[in-house]
Specification:
Blueprint (H helix, E strand, L loop, with lengths): L16 H51 L3 H49 L15 H8 L8 H5 L2 H23 L4 H28 L15
Helix pairs in contact: 1-2, 2-3, 2-5, 5-6
């Protein structure tokens, strides 16, 4: 007979600890595989972007040998720089999205470690990464438990790497446009600097807002110092 909606469902049968551990491990390996495939795809995108950027420089060099540095060269340089910047920006967006997904995956694995500790609290001294699914636990896992500053970790990240490359291209594009418009040396330098620095600032603001947005509610927060 089907139970009425007001009736509580029967309690689940006791599941052996070994079966629970296997289920948790399956989910853990699934998250690891997802993380690996995500970054493999991102690195392929970055490789394609850098290849196109390098090929653009070769094309400009060959074009300059054939036609010199006149108006045609400026048009070609502006077009290629714009194309490289568009590709770089799209790649940058993918890197940011992958970083957000990666952080969510890390939080999921932290939550699974909390489940492992529920099965066997004695494992706590052997875990390098965190079993807490909050911001502090996320950074503890990223830093592998080392009490170091996050500055070097952020500065060396893939997102900052792509931001710097795209900023150089943006600055170059701005300088090329200023030169093609007949601006003097000072105007070319100023406009190129403004475009490059502006791109960096814009990407930092977008990245900060993206990562500041709460991903999910924390179920296993890091205990406070007084607890």
């Amino acid at each position: 007979m089907t139970a009425s909606p007001s009736e509580a469902p029967p309690p689940p049968p006791d599941v052996p600890a070994g079966v629970r551990a296997q289920i948790l491990a399956t989910e853990h390996w699934s998250l690891l595989a997802t993380r690996s495939m995500t970054w493999s795809e991102v690195m392929s995108r970055i490789t394609i972007h850098l290849t196109v950027a390098s090929a653009s420089l070769v094309v400009l060099a060959l074009f300059a040998q054939a036609s010199g540095f006149g108006g045609a060269f400026r048009v070609m340089a502006i077009g290629l720089a714009a194309a490289v910047l568009v590709m770089g920006t799209l790649t940058q967006i993918r890197v940011v999205n992958a970083s957000i997904d990666d952080a969510s995956t890390i939080l999921g694995m932290n939550r699974l470690r909390a489940a492992y500790l529920d099965l066997d609290p004695g494992l706590a001294p052997y875990l390098v990464t965190s079993p807490h699914d909050d911001q502090q636990g996320l950074m503890q896992t990223y830093l592998m438990g080392w009490p170091r500053s996050t500055l070097s970790h952020v500065a060396g990240s893939t997102s900052i790497f792509m931001t710097v490359i795209n900023a150089i291209v943006a600055g170059t594009l701005g300088a090329l446009v200023a030169d093609a418009a007949g601006g003097g040396a000072a105007v070319v330098v100023v406009l190129g600097t403004v475009c490059g620095v502006g791109y960096v600032v814009a990407q930092l603001v977008i990245g900060q807002r993206s990562f500041a947005t709460p991903r999910q509610d924390s179920r296993f927060p890091t205990p406070s110092t007084g607890d």
